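Weekend entry, working from home. Most of the wet-lab plans are on hold until the incubator is repaired, so I used the time to fold the two sequences that have been sitting in the queue since the last round of cloning. Logging both here for the record. First:
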Amino acid sequence: MYILHVTRESGSDARYGIGKSLAPIVTALRERDHTVDILDGDISRTHPIGRWSAWLGRCLLAILRWHYAPPGPDQAASQAILAMLAERTRIAWIAARWVKAKNISHVHCHDPVLAYLFTCFARWTGAKARWGVTEHGFGAYVQERPGVFIPRHLLRHFQAWERSVAQSAAWLCAPSHTGLQQLASDLRWPVGTSAKSAPLPHNWHAVLHPRPALRHYERAKARQLLGIAADEWIVLAVGQLIPMKRFPLLITACGSIDTVMRPNLIILGEGDQSPLLEAADAVDMRHKLRIEVTDDIGLYFSAADVYASSTATESFGMANCEALSFGLPAVCTAVGAVPEIIGDAAWLVGDSSDEMAAALIALRNDADLRRSYCAKARRWAQAWPDPEKIALEMERIYEAI
């Protein structure tokens, strides 16, 4: 097979997003003698689309802005959504041209908007390939989430596109069964039936993200390299600095702990730091907070005492799973697919900073409790499938008729 993965991700997504989970699968598929290419946001910008196509795209975007982003309270949000659409249009156009030129047999899109646009351009160019999509969000991709506002007049169009993709795709994947069930509910799928009682389509598949290869360090060595004292109590969090991750909630939780027991919090992620710094100032945590970017996350996992996730929703939780693979006791909000994916291997809490703080205090005070969660984490990690197993599963999905 000649497989093309199409995603709009770029930059930090290679560290914390789709790129991180996709790379080992691509490598494993190549080792099984398949040809696999990736077209992402960074790569697309190195491929010119032609003067005529660029001019046509600018004209179309101007028309869409005039029609869908008129002056008013929703103008800024509408323009941001249309800019997102323009970016995906460019990538989908290049993907269709690649399929035509390179005789690609399978196209795997990593969001339904990209998939819909690809199918439009594939019909236009005559590109022939089996195609499918992975839904990386929990439930429908096109919906409002923390920090994401979609004006209603645009939301209706994108939701219709997503339903069309779900109906037409040769395969549809999500990283959890609960995510597929939520997608069916969000899309009211199948049409005219109760999503909660109807069976999912046969070509919908729950496929876990594979275990990544992260470097492990001895604890003392990791702390030495990071400049962390042996007796410091370190809570680690990982993820892009976006509202959905709710890092201010975690900062508030740590800041509510008595000053004698208050942990040092390290957050690994890229994005706007100002909301986090404001939250830290509000609870006197600025001197206890480090926000950093790294390509060696294993170094930080090796040095940490506890891992924490305060996210508002989660389709899988790669960082949660990575923390468990290092045998760390973990405290995670019980949202999205988290309960399905990690079960009792981590301490699941509600959405309040008080619950998060109580769990962190209990883990610091009780060595037996820490050892219990460390043991659960290691048992969970032993069952986490490797990239080769996931690649074999994807191969069967691609070949299914």
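Second, folded right after the first finished:
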Amino acid sequence: MDIKLIEVPLSDKHLLRRFIQVPRYIHREHWPNPQWVPPLSIERKMFFDPAKHPVWRHLHARLWIANDGLRDIGRVSAAVDRDHIEHHGEKCGFLGTFECPDDPALARHLCDTAEGWLVEQGMDKVIGPTAMNSNYEWGCMIEGFEREPGINMPYNPPYYAPLFEHCGYAKAKDLYQWGFDVQTPTPPRIARIADRVKKRDKISIRNLDTSRWDKEVRMAHDIYNAAWEKNWGFIPLDKTEWNHIADDLKLALEPSLGLVAEVDGRPVGLALSVKNLNPILKQMDGRLLPFGLLRMLWELKVKKSVNTGRLVLLGIRPEYRRRGLDVLLMVETHRAAQKIGYTFGELGWTLEDNDLINKPIQMFGAERITTYRVFEKELSRG
């Protein structure tokens, strides 16, 4: 059967709606599974709207749907991010939003199409899969298929990695997701280290003050860009995009799990955890209206059914690294999570070779529960 690739302009709402719905075919029909969490359709529409999402101020992309004559069965995107190129000094594009049946020929057709456009844009290399760039969902799950993904983490069938390898992609970097039983006591040695660090460096720990939201968001943005500047794959976020992301996370934020480490009143470290909304999102089945929002508010505010979370950000200013501040923030987060009755927590993702954070996480007793792989490929102009 002939398969046609249809280009999807961002201005075409009908085609964009079809593009957004492709994962339902993969996870509900082709490879049905109970772990997949449908994203909110309205959120996806806003993400792909250049008038509503600031990522499009520095990124341009092309999107395609694969149609077999009866239905849409696959999709792919190719993106060029000016900020990534300027920060890393390399002509590297992104391949993303990849969905495909277990069909090597179709996977190659999708990848070849995306790569061809990137070559036209002057790119020498491609990395992926991504949701446009490395500041959003990225990586191909290669371990942990038996469990539901954490909030804002991707989920894909196990045959995706072999498909990428078939298309000439090789490992660029693995990303680790960690998990731990919150009700397990903090290891005594770790608790002693944390208390010693806090006393030695005269560090005070406070909660994010949501009554000063704009000021706290600016503070977090400053720490984030300073802490991650040298990390592999990092793309700096400007204030507009950071504010947009912060607003998106506001509903999921657990104020008691937003911790700021200060020295003489100056914020030097930040640990931010969010509620795992995925069980609620799964019930909503991607629909916010007419009753999805009411269901979410009921579960969060009335039933208070969420008792798991994800540590999404742990950043320390470079001059305060290697002094145990990461351990202190993890211990304080653990204590706060226990106090509000959380049962399970996730940390990550972290880079596979970031020993500065991975070793303290392991010392804490967390176990690696999921691995994601970012692939790369040199592009040929021949």
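Plan for Monday: verify the second prediction. The first helix runs from residue 13 to 30.
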